[in-house]
Amino acid sequence: MRKLLYALACLLPALPVQAGDWRGSITAELTGFPEQAADPAQHRSYAALALEPEYFKEWNNRHDLFTFKPYLILDSHDDNRSHGDIRELSWIHAARDWETNIGISKVYWGVTEAAHLVDVINQTDAVVNEDGEDKLGQPMAKLTLIRDWGVVDLFVLPGFRERTFPGRQGRPRFSIPISDNPLYESGARDLHTDFAARWSHSIGAFDIGVSHFTGTGREPRFVIQPGAYNPQTMTISEITPFYEIIHQTSLDLQAVYGGWLWKLEAVVRNGQGERIESLAGGYEYTFVGINESAVDVGIITEYLYDSRGDDVDPADTLTGQPFFTSAFQNDLVLGARFTLNDAASSELLASVIVDLEGGGQSYNLEASRRLGDNWKLSLEARGLKNIPDNNVFASFRDDTRLRVELARYF
Amino acid sequence: MRIPDRLLPALILCLLPLGTTAGTPEEEGLAIAVEADRRDTGFGDYTSDVKMILKNKQGQESTRVIRSKNLEVTGDGDKSQTIFDEPRDVQGTALLSFTHKEGPDDQWLYLPALKRVKRIASDNKSGPFMGSEFAYEDITSQEVDKYTYKYLRDETLDGLDVFVFERYPKDRKSGYTRQIVWLDKEHYKERKIEYYDRKNALLKTLVFTEYNQYNDKFWRAHNMYMVNHQTGKSTRLLQSNYQFNIGLTDRDFDKNSLKRAR
Predict the structure, then answer these.
(1) B89–A259: do the CB atoms touch at under 8 Å?
(2) pLDDT surpasses 70 at A331
(3) Are A265 and A117 in contact (CB under 8 A)?
(4) What is the mean pLDDT of residues A322-332?
């Protein structure tokens, strides 16, 4: 990985000598768990500090842009959560009807709120937050063609990033530790070069995107390796991520009508056992100016489907059969977003994901407001309820948590 | 903005000396709006730097710094892109608006932390822009076809001869029943607007000052002061560094351009 970064840095053209701009944020974070942890190695409270500066430089009348955005987070207990990353190190060149982006960058295609199915370019930085919205920087060479009939993005993605998982003291996490030595389908391991292409277009009230990805899938299956299972004690010492070559085609669609925003993400993926079909779709309806006030209230309803179900017998996993640990199989998302539209940009999002097959509920609350001109205070609460014993998330049951974040922007 | 054929009679009407015409107040009001639009036609594109100073009832201030880009569109509403510089936590956030003569406007918001381009429901026009006293519908392109009109009277305002007319938003999602506009007779620029809420009570007053002329034709206000009479809050919007005809194209107002906004 490090070699790759140096190579990419060399690819960047000689930068103009004038200095650019530094900006960014430093965030202090406290997380508390009201309930006793399942594992004595875990804790009731965690503190963390995150630094995300950004260097930005433009030249050639804004047709060339350079961005460098390192990221560093230090966690008081979880060694895996303490990590650094280069979120962005990219050179964008924009011409009249085409654009290139070379370096490390992030790509977001999704439209729905609860699940992020179509975003396949970047690996999820899962230790930062469970919501799947934090991503590791991905090396890429991207060519964008802008035409009357839409925008075409072509990606060459050299190099693969492993998903981050909580360490032994981390919380929440699965009860069985996850191995630091993943398995790959490709002999090139994390140096396999992946490809992706996307067509997107805005037509009146509709935004549509169709994408295809071929390469090492960002979402691993897991295997129990020979030796990790002890038949005498019937315990598993660790599970190992298995990154396979996948072929994934996706559709994302958004339509606006008055206060309605209709959203759909649909994915078909081959390469990880049976063909996987997944879908997230729904709406957000916004009531503007409740009771003649400035407050907007948005109602969110989404349905999540995933064909991954009970196709793997738990007994077979002990003989090396790969399995998934997560999937929204048949779930309903209900949420409400309150936007106060005040000077402090106060907002609150409350949501619940209900497993329609009796697998419990996931509760989420996110609120934030600005303090003064340069500070921002955020609150986040998450918890699972009524999770059955046989559910993969059973070990998360006592991990209801409350997090307070105070960020200083500079 | 090309003038629709059906407005031509109204345009001809307004070229006649007002006061001696036999037009109805509605026709006269429309004629004034059409003439104001005609005088601002042909600007092509322009950019400006914007500072908003928000003040609450207790006098506490907070500041917004934004950059604005605008593109004239022939035959439809204009396009604009607004990039936020301050407050710092929303730095790099950018709003793309395509206004339309008829039907709802199209709007997308770019969130730089996620690198997400988010479509915005088109009903939000009456909502506050960045917590200020300006609603989205106050700052987007004021297309002639978005209102019906009624001429009220001639008046003198701060020593200027002005037309006073009412305009009524056609969009039922507008936060206003009506607006009263004071427009100077010499340059056809707004000097004052009173906004009446859905209950037809006076909500806000906007005063335009410090006009400068650009390219020997286009007048732009550098100071817009909005007072909310119902809450006691105010917002002063200061525009500077106007630059006309810098060669912006549709390409500077597409979703890709949002990701490069900064």
Answers:
(1) no
(2) yes
(3) yes
(4) 84
